[in-house]
Amino acid sequence: MEKYLNTIQLISGIIAIVLIFAGLFLSTRKLSKEDSTKKIPKKTVIISTILIAAGLLVYAITKTCTNYANRDQEYDISVLYLSSLISVIKYFGFVMLLPLLFNYIRRRPGKDISDDNEETVA
Question: Environment class of residue 48 by beta-carbon count within 10 Å: exposed (0-12), middle (13-18) or buried (19+)?
């Protein structure tokens, strides 16, 4: 298995990048440029969140390969994967919330951009 670590790490890294960016692209594509009050459909938010979560799970495989090559003691592969998954969620788990945040950052329906600037100047 050790001779395949680099190949597994490279393939899982590419798959993770594709899944994460597909989830982000799917949610940002549904944002309306004309109507700032229109929110992303709930189904799209769920699908994009699942894609991002799957990308983070696959990225944990990449981290597991790195930890497997640098291990000091004999650990089971499941222990290494769980440790890698926890560190990935700790550092990159906020990315799963981005599709939800895109809905909440939208401007309110009654306000215009010029109204916001006048309030801050006065």
Answer: buried
User: CB of 68 within 8 A of CB of 19?
Assistant: no
Phi, psi of 88 (to 5 degrees): -65, -45
Q: Per residue in 35-89, pLDDT tens?
A: 667 788 889 999 999 999 999 999 999 999 988 888 777 888 899 999 999 999 9
pTM for the whole structure: 0.80
Rounded Cα–Cα distance for residues 59 and 62 (Å): 5
CA distances (Å), origin 74, targets 1, 2, 104: 14, 14, 47
Residue 2 DSSP class: G
